[in-house]
Amino acid sequence: MLLRKRAWDIMREDFLVVEEVASMAEVITKLRESISKHADNDFAIVVKEGGQLAGVITARDMLRAIEDCVLRDDVVRNAEETDWDRAFAKACTLCCHRRVKDIMERKPPTVRPNDPVLLVLNSLVDSKVRWAVVEEGGKPIGVVVINDLFNEISREMVSSF
């Protein structure tokens, strides 16, 4: 039965999408909301104008960018204890104006809707990420998350015990 399953059978059709020109502030707000609904929704699909897949931005990418902004700012690194909060707020404000296209992953793992589940598994294992974008005609139509894939495969395994 598992060999007949395809990416479209297990993909999530409800996923966060942001435009590549979005600011970090916009994406942070949307990611926080997405994560509050489901803990493994810690990424957003990034699209170009017209809906074409441009990349993916994850909570980890956002934290790296924030770290880079804060640590790069000499004012924050050299701030006295009393100035630190103000210096940190300034660095964060500057960071929030960065565009997603400057920090996103440009080549996310992708699968086609008709790809067998085992090919999806291979894609996730090879890419070492927890999700793969289901892409058709250059546009994202869904996302396969590793937890959903694990549940599908393990359900088949348990039923064969």
From TrEMBL:
Presence of keyword Coiled coil: no
Keywords: CBS domain
Keyword Ribonucleoprotein among record annotations: no
Protein name according to UniProt: Mg/Co/Ni transporter MgtE with CBS domain containing protein
Residue ranges constituting the CBS domain according to the UniProt record: 11-75, 104-160
